[in-house]
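WARN retry 2 of 3 for item q-0093 after timeout on previous attempt; input resubmitted unchanged.
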Amino acid sequence: MTEQREEAGNAVGVTGLLLKTSPEVSRAEAENLVTELVGDGWPLAPSTSVLDWLEFESDDGPVSVGDGFDAIRRLRAHPGVIAVEPILDGEAYFPDEVDEQAARAVRAAPVDPDTEGKFDWHLVQVKAQQAWEYANTRGEGIRIASVDTGYTEHPELVSGDNVRADLGYNFREGTDSPQEPLKTIKQGHGTATGSVLISPPGRQLGGTSIAVWGVAPDAEVVPIRVDKNVWFWSGARDAKGVLHAVSNGCDVISMSRGGRKSAVLFEAARHAVEQGVIVVAAAGNCNLSCKIRDPARYPHVACAAGSTYSRRPWQKSSHGAAASIGAPAASVYRARATKKNRRYEYENQRSSGTSYATPIVAGAAAIWLAHHGGRVALAGKLGGVARAIPAVFLHLLRTEAYSAGVDWDASRYGPGILDVEALVRAELPDRATTERLVAELDEAMGRSARSAGAYASDVRTRDLRALFGDASARSVAVSDDLAEELSVYLLLPEVREALSAARAGTRATGVREARAVEAILSQAPSEVLARALRAQIP
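OK item q-0093 returned
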């Protein structure tokens, strides 16, 4: 790879590459290809592969995004290469800090006074207790993977003795311990979501403390640490987390995370589904935009949008046709872990986000699986086809396992609010219907796979107008090749600030458009993108 551009001030860089080659290309030939087209110092990673993708990592630390994409284009031009995906990493630049107006709105979201003291309101709304009684189970025998920031020894998690840290892993630091060090703004996120999954009823902190109630308190949770934040630049570690969950016998995967498009994460989630594992992911919160991101938008993943105590859509929930169901997301009681003076401190409080709707739906999946005797038994009831389990689960969410919301838009938030009792009471479909559902899921996965790495639709038209088009244009075309790299820079605060100024200006002067273009050029983009941008400067 060419020498990293010294003038670039990127807060994000390329730390590795995922390479998929045609079957005729051997591993040794792939290594030689990377050496020839990328450069020395890019060996195979110790894990060597993610499914049929080979992972190469930089010996010298992150290189600039521009250098990385120059090398990626050289690899993609080779006839033996099917696909290349960059592994990006950055410090704290994720949408909560990108669009400050939206971020402040999420952070300042007040707790709902109607939920005061109602520690189990989220369970009441989704009828979880009625489901426990009808099904005579609270998820025992079911293993849920929490692919998140890790876990802590918070009493809300460990008092039930069903956190399987021995089966977890830390893909962020590369260690066997998934315990999180609590060093970032999103510290304790995995602890919070895990508590909504399995916290036992009652006050685990004792006295008159706030109580946290888990949806499936008798299920096991396998904490898998994949990052220090909830937004991901690259889906590589999440894909590894999903595969680790499958190989360690998890029946459900809960992912209160989202980020940029990732073909390798798409394939990892597909692999899980093919093994009969139910994957649930957060729709996301309205920060940079209200679009549903990967992995929640995959057709084989249950996408959890947000509801409020008053049974309305949570106004900050991302939304769209990919939403499978709504679940409580506003003022949900959860565990909170922090670290002060090198000591862990534990408390409970209310918080908001589709990060909480996700474990509620995942917990419902665990209860449903336990009610039917577990994953193996249920597959037998569904004709012996493992992927029929997630196919039928997704079908029931959209057809039977919901109740009506207030002012609810089913085209944006799913058909309604999750009803766990209705889920466990629902009859399983007959053989013909099951086969049809599996065929439809297969078709949807195949159709979506072809666009899993396509970025053009991810770049907002208003941003493209500010960079490449007339202010009055309804749409502006940009290739997936340029959009993939461009989408990285569009998440950087200095670029977003310049784009906001450009959108407020006029095309007549070109001054503010030039400022937006120059903000990206200051990041030292690839040669291809730099040429396209320079052509826009008057």
